[in-house]
Amino acid sequence: MLYADLERGHRLEEERRAQGVYSARELLRIATAEAADHVERFVAVYRHAPADPAGSGVYEALVRHFTDYALAFMARGGPETR
User: Fold this and answer.
1) Please, which contacts does 60-64 make with residues 24 or more away whose CB atoms are closer than 8 Å?
2) Stated pTM of the model
3) What are the two backbone dihedrals, phi and then psi, of residue 4, each rounded to the nearest 5 degrees?
4) Could you say which of 2, 32, 43, 63 is the most buried, measured as most Cβ atoms within 10 Å of its Cβ?
5) How crowded is the C-beta side of 71, counted as CA atoms within 13 Å?
6) What b/e readout covers 49-64, taking b as 16+ CB neighbours within 10 angstroms?
């Protein structure tokens, strides 16, 4: 559920990128705001995860999201994204 919610942001970014009206800087700002919104909406889950032996998957989803996003963002962009 957490990763799917984070991935929704990727899909929205692809739609925005296809529109061609946002700069790489704007796309990054929007994506960062969406990730922050995600963490705020699921703050109870993220707060509980360290105390739960099964909670490592919560942070793994977040780390995987940011890693995948950063690599894809740099691969798609030109010099301004690096």
Assistant:
1) 61/2, 61/3, 61/6, 62/2, 62/6, 64/3
2) 0.72
3) -60, -40
4) 2
5) 6
6) beeeeeeeebeebbee
